[in-house]
Amino acid sequence: MQSESLPIELKYWPIKRYMDIYRHSIDEMEEFWENEARKLEWFRTWDRVLDWDPPFAKWFPGGMLNASYLCVDRHLKNWRRNKVAIYWEGENGEERALSYSQLYREVNQLASALKKLGVKDGDRVALYLPMIPELPIAMLATARIGAIHTVIFSGFSSMALADRVNDTEAKVIITADGGYRRGKIIRLKEIVDEALKKTPSVEKVIVVKRTGHEINMQEGRDIWYHEIIRDAETEVPPLPIESTHPLYILYTSGTTGKPKGIVHSTGGYLVFIHSMYKWVFDIQEESVYWCTADVGWVTGHSSIVYAPLMHGASIVVYEGAPDYPKPDRWWEIIEKYKVTIFYTSPTAIRMFMKYGEEWPKKHDLSSLTILGSVGEPINPEAWLWYFKHIGGERCPIVDTWWQTETGGIMISPAPGIGLVPLKPGSATFPLPGIDADVVDEKGNPATPGVRGYLVIKKPWPGMLMTLYKDPERYKQTYWSRFPNMYYTGDYCMKDEEGYFWLLGRADEVLKIAGHRLGTTELESSVVSHPAIAEAAVIGKPHEIKGETIVVFAILREGYSPSDELKKELRGHLRKTVGPVATPEEIYFVSKLPKTRSGKIMRRVLKALASGKPVGDTTTLEDEASVEEIKRAYEEFKKIIK
Ligand code: WTA
Question: Which of 87, 128, 307, 551 is 20 to 30 A removed from 584 (C-alpha atoms)?
Fold first, then answer.
């Protein structure tokens, strides 16, 4: 790990100057956030800044606003009405540009159509769409009428889709016939049809025609998007929404098999990301902002849709695979749209590093001013490659740490306020208003240079309100580990100068190419296969993807290990969870290492899969002592051979 500052001349601020602003924001937290809230346009001002009934926060209660108004209508009052809001590029080279006025019309038409279908304030609408403009349009249309959207990543299987739709009891699903990926059609409507067999709450399905292939349309239930839009009104007044009304529910993986429905508020969330994206990305009037995430993840919600559109930036939305048809597709897009702010994941950077710098070299990337990284720790080598070959040693890299639960960025350099000296691999410092710290097993501040747990000590406006229909689990998951602190589930270390170094997950959550998956969720999928009696899933370090999935499985009586069965299991995981869940390695074993209370000793499996020793310390997550772990390791090493 490098602890030297970057020896390159960017315009740095002394750390102290940043810290002074930061300290003030923490000491005067409510006043600080109130000033930030004034930067948005509200239909009614809040009664109070914060009602804090630990661990439940209500930000700006009494305030009324509307996300769709802030992202669209607000820009029609000035010249931005003719500015491009969305540059869309299809994988097959198709292009579409929507000005803010056009976006306004489309959002209103869909809002009108949804109203006609009976969707009301507080109803849930599920979105299962590829990366096409209709996805942000659908989010803004639901928000316009006070409905709550739940976007389900279009790489998820029909089972995952059905689970999420059922949990929210969505009335309407908006989907497409299909989407393109690596030149092939992904048949989304077929997946929806499969899910619909198990989703009784769904009354209507709106289908965008994207690929044009033959699909099943059920009379009375399925409606074409273009048809429903045709008869819709072009103006629907944005409904004033109470600040604490949910804007969306987004499912994410945790440490149990059941995904968690993260509920985000309207007011607090929007105030928070509005400020964060200004500070971190220094969004300007002429910014062309490209975040390569899928809108199906939180990164896409905040960094593609809500924050850049609130700032009136032009965003780029790209439908397809990063290296399709050739490894310079992304660099070509940056050159074509003169992207100024580029935000991606370490996995993507490592993949492009492997392809080599000759690919970005073919393109003029001089429009870039700031580069971002998110989703997993970025290793110094990837950081430096990104800095040199994409940013031309001119652009600061903002390594942004955050989570689905936090709503927006929490720890990151902030060139929009003042850039502190960068250290490749460190996300630097918490942003103003964020009281983050690293603590030891007992919840005391960790010693500098020693690994501990990342916690947040004060509420912040972007924080999740609760877990959908499960406030107890919300308390348990985030607020029970350490008294009065939000537990992130991440390992972290502060160095002597106070820089934060994120060191991966401390719990049973995996990050596969930046995608968040729970081990238990994957294990339930594996054991749902008839040949499997029991299974354990772990993450193994991977050069490009950060982590990959390794499965240890015990076969049922009557089945024997074979390559055929491994292939079948791979297919089973893809089908039940989605292609992101494809395992790299599968081992058939006769038993699993467990603690006395029956908990799987994942450290043993991890050590075996990566060929590394188990280590000498126990952590918060270990139930067993070092000796027990070591004994199990030795015993298990023999079995796995
Ligand atoms: C990890 C994604 C290191 C972390 C926005 C966190 C990171 C989880 C970083 C949340 C980063 C995210 N450096 N690790 N810059 N950003 N993570 O909910 O483990 O998909 O807890 O949100 O990603 O993943 P999620």
Answer: 128
